[in-house]
UniProtKB/TrEMBL annotation:
Keywords: Antioxidant, Disulfide bond, Oxidoreductase, Peroxidase, Redox-active center. GO terms for biological process: cell redox homeostasis; cellular response to oxidative stress. Residues 25-188 form the Thioredoxin domain. This is Peroxiredoxin. It comes from Saliniramus fredricksonii. One of its GO terms (molecular function) is thioredoxin peroxidase activity. GO terms for cellular component: cytoplasm. PANTHER family: BCPB PROTEIN (PTHR42801:SF21), THIOREDOXIN-DEPENDENT PEROXIDE REDUCTASE (PTHR42801).
Length: 188
C-alpha cells in the first residue's frame, strides 16, 4: 500500500519493528574516521565531530511523484522517513539550545537523490549519503534489503565528540524520535 502523503501516516496500520539486538554493540563505540558527502555540498568527517551530535539513520526517503517499493508498509520500521526528518526539522532549534552542534540524517541514497528531499522538506540540516556503505560496514549497522537495495534500519545515535553516548533502536513511530532525543538531552 502506497500512501500518497508521505508526511501523514496511520502508525496503527504500520508494522512496528522489534529490537533484534543488532545495535546493542554501538553504545560507547567511537565513530570511525569516515567522511560522507552532504546535501549542502560539504563533506562531513564523522570521526571528528565535536560536542553533542545527533545522527538519525533511515532506510530511504520517498518522493511524492514516485511509488514506494512494493510492500514497503509491511516491512517493520521501513515507513516514516519523511515524518522523522520533519520532526527533527521542527525541533532543530530546541536541539541546538540543548547543545547539539551537529544534526544529520543519513541513508544509503545518493546525495543527488537526498537533495530533493532536503529542499522539499526545508530541512535546516544536511542529509548525508552512505551510498557505498562505508559507515554502515564500519559500525556494523543493522541493514535490510529491499528490491536489490541495501538500506540502513532506522536508528538514532547521540554522540559526545566522537563517542556514541546513546542509541535509539528500534525507532517507532519515527515522528516521535526527535522528541525522545530532545528529552534525553534535556535530562543530561
Amino acid at each position: 500500500m502506497n500512501q500518497p502523503n508521505l508526511q501523514s501516516v496511520d502508525w496503527s496500520a504500520i508494522s512496528a519493528p522489534e529490537d533484534d539486538g543488532a545495535a546493542a554493540h554501538l553504545t560507547g563505540a567511537r565513530m570511525p574516521d569516515i567522511t560522507l558527502p552532504a546535501t549542502d555540498g560539504s563533506e562531513v568527517a564523522l570521526g571528528r565531530l565535536n560536542g553533542w551530535s545527533v545522527l538519525f539513520f533511515y532506510p530511504m526517503t520517498g518522493r511524492p511523484d514516485q511509488p514506494l517499493p512494493d510492500g514497503w508498509d509491511q516491512i517493520p520500521g521501513a515507513r516514516g522517513c519523511t515524518p522523522q526528518s520533519c520532526a527533527f526539522r521542527d525541533l532543530s532549534r530546541d536541539l541546538a539550545d540543548c547543545g547539539v552542534s551537529s544534526l544529520y540524517g543519513i541513508s544509503t541514497q545518493t546525495t543527488a537523490y537526498q537533495r530533493e528531499a532536503a529542499e522539499r522538506l526545508h530541512l535546516p540540516f544536511p542529509l548525508l549519503s552512505d551510498a557505498d556503505l562505508a559507515l554502515a560496514e564500519a559500525l556494523s549497522l543493522p541493514t535490510l534489503q529491499v528490491e536489490g537495495m541495501v538500506l540502513i534500519k532506522r536508528l538514532t545515535l547521540i554522540l559526545r565528540d566522537d563517542r556514541i553516548e546513546k542509541v535509539f533502536y528500534p525507532v517507532f513511530p519515527p515522528d516521535r524520535n526527535a522528541g525522545d532525543v530532545l528529552a534525553y538531552l534535556r535530562a543530561q
